[in-house]
Amino acid sequence: MSSFDHTKYRPFEPVAIENRTWPDQEITTAPIWASVDLRDGNQALVEPMTVDQKKEFFKLLVDVGFKEIEVGFPAASQLDFDFVRWLVEEDQVPDDVYIQVLTQARPELIERTYESLKGAKKAVVHVYNSTSKTQREQVFRLGKDGIKEIAVKGAQCVKEHAAKHPETEWVFQYSPESFTGTETDFAVEVCDAVIDVWQPTPENKCIINLPATVEVTTPNRFADQIEYFCRKVKNRDSIIVSLHTHNDRGCGVAAAELGLMAGADRIEGTLLGNGERTGNMCVVTMAMNMYSQGVNPELNFADMDRVISVVQSCTQLPVHPRHAYAGELVFTAFSGSHQDAIKKCLANQTDDKPWDVAYLPIDPRDIGRSYQEVIRVNSQSGKGGVAFALEQEYGLALPRWLQVELSPIVQRFSEEDGGVIEAADMKRLFEENFMTASAPYALGNYELSKKDRDSVTAELTHKDGNISVQGEGNGALSAFTSALSEQFNIRVDIVQYQEHALTVGSDSQAIAYIQANIDGERYNGVAIDNDIVSASIQAVLATVNQKVSASEQANVA
Ligand SMILES: CC(=O)SCCNC(=O)CCNC(=O)[C@H](O)C(C)(C)COP(=O)(O)OP(=O)(O)OC[C@H]1O[C@@H](n2cnc3c(N)ncnc32)[C@H](O)[C@@H]1OP(=O)(O)O
Ligand SMILES: CC(C)C(=O)C(=O)O
Ligand SMILES: [Mg+2]
Question: Which ligand 1 atom minimizes the distance to the CA of 128?
């Protein structure tokens, strides 16, 4: 029999709060950020980081802008202890950065923790014990008083050791671990007891960190818990309320955001969300969410690729290609209508206007991505994507009527090839189908003259021998068209014409795009040359070459 049975679970019991205010709040300033990559992230790895990896990660965190960094659990492992000693002894911590260390509320561990911090300029000592009903009853086998006593004794011990080292600027932090599984009134009671020991003031605050150690409910219920806690806790103006959310229900960021609206001041999390089980809340996502609303996140993710590279190499974990903001595919549109909209919006977007591009919540360039990656062409793509790629890569600003012609050719190729088409392949298809001015006939020398009308005499080279054509018309193009019509006994009418200077890969070249109706059928020709007249007449020749080749093939068949 399957054990898949929802009746074995109980719903979360929400806190009873009246007149909640958090739904009307908005996030307008960045919280105090604290990274827990080197502790919570590290303790969740198959292979915990080496000292060298921790050093590299620490440097990244400082460069990104964190001012509070939990660097390890020094009483738990020699490696963590040594890393903290290296930070202190080698003076690796910038003056405005607090290193933070975690310890259980046990005297021998607290003592060892302080040993590791000897000589630190600034440090946060973070002590925790679990307060949830489940852990009280089954892990600690203690009543509420017993649990509160662990917290109080731990807080006293932390304070006593700090007093022996006045050379360090200490900040105390307490976490009622498993806060979300704790009756909120009891969490307040335990935190109040810790606050009584530490006696914080508005000038010298302590941190009370409320962890969703396991995420057990919807973010709105979590926000209720935070607002309730903030209303009830002692000396609210003397404490920094911090949140530490995990992602068990996939809502770690949402919970932290609503918790911030509910009154929290500080957010703990990790870069790209590594951490126990489904991970800690992702600081990149939350900070970039603020950024995309015009709020300064006070963290700088301009070099997102460095963030990804360091996180991946230190954690050995891949970054999902669709990870918010950071994933390699998050700014990529494959589908035709998205590509079309992005291309149009990007053409309107200027640096002096607020960002307003469909399907792109932020400008990819802000985090070191380029527009080249934005549109990738596969069988789901439309003309906009193809045109975008050719313009970005090769400076070819295809007129709309030619985009319509090229798109199905590219799509057919993609269906046969079965994947993403590179810009080089699109250019090859474009050249093969439209830039056909060299065979069977190529333009040799030509001469233009003008009396009443324009006239042209041109030599056309062919593998079987050269021919000379001559024609008149209103303008060079019209004269050349009439010359070709007469030579090949066809009727050529120019239906569409467009030209532009080439800006990519060439100094002074021009490109001409022509659509001609030849004996009732539509042909598209493109040519590039140093001057626009040569480019234009070769574009006409390209259309005629297609017609001549088609007729030859029909005759052979
Ligand atoms: C939610 C979180 O992420 S919390 C952080 C978790 N991180 C880690 O645990 C990583 C590092 N930890 C370790 O390496 C080990 O736990 C150590 C070295 C710190 C301690 O190891 P041990 O001494 O073997 O103790 P262990 O962690 O297994 O805990 C067992 C005892 O400590 C008690 N304990 C656990 N947590 C705490 C705490 N926060 N405060 C006080 N006592 C605690 C337990 O009740 C248990 O007591 P018992 O032996 O009387 O039954
Ligand atoms: C130590 C605490 C803050 C923790 O990591 C958690 O509860 O998830
Ligand atoms: Mg945690």
Answer: 39
Give pLDDT, residue 512: 97
Q: What are phi and psi of 201, to 5 degrees?
A: -130, 165
Is 37 close to ligand 2, i.e. is its CB under 6 Å away?
no
pTM of the model: 0.84
DSSP state of 214: S
Q: What is the pLDDT of residue 333?
A: 87
Ligand 1 neighbourhood includes 174 CB (under 6 angstroms) = no
Choose one of 35, 37, 40 to mutate for the ligand 2 pocket test, by most ligand atoms within 8 angstroms of C-beta: 40
Task: Identify the segments of the chain with pLDDT beneath 70.
Answer: 372, 504-507
Q: How far apart are CA 118 and CA 125, in angstroms?
A: 12
Residue 244, annotated ligand binder? Answer: yes
Q: What is the pLDDT of residue 504?
A: 61
pLDDT score at 329: 87
Q: Is 26 exposed, middle or buried (0-12, 13-18, 19+ CB in 10 A)?
A: exposed
Encode 390-432 in three state secondary structure: HHHHHCCCCCHHHHHHHHHHHHHHHHHHCCCECHHHHHHHHHH
pLDDT of residue 371: 72
Rounded (5°) CA angle 496-499-501: 170
Residues 213, 216, 222, 224: what is their CA dihedral angle, to the nearest 10 degrees? -130
Is 246 within any annotated ligand binding site?
A: yes
| Beta sheet of 454-461, edge-to-edge order | 442-450, 454-461, 467-473
* Rounded Cα gap, residues 25 and 183, in angstroms: 25
Ligand 3 (ion): residues with CB under 5 Å are 40
Nearest-atom index, ligand 1, CA of 104: 39
- pLDDT tens string 11-26: 999 999 999 999 999 9
State pLDDT tens for residues 372-390: 677 777 777 788 889 989 9
ipTM of predicted complex: 0.97
**Residue 398, both tokens:** 């295809």
Q: What is the pLDDT of residue 140?
A: 98
Which domains occur in the chain, in start order? 32-315 (3.20.20.70), 336-434 (no CATH), 442-556 (3.30.160.270)
Tell how far the Cα of 274 is from the centroid of ligand 2, in angstroms. Answer: 13
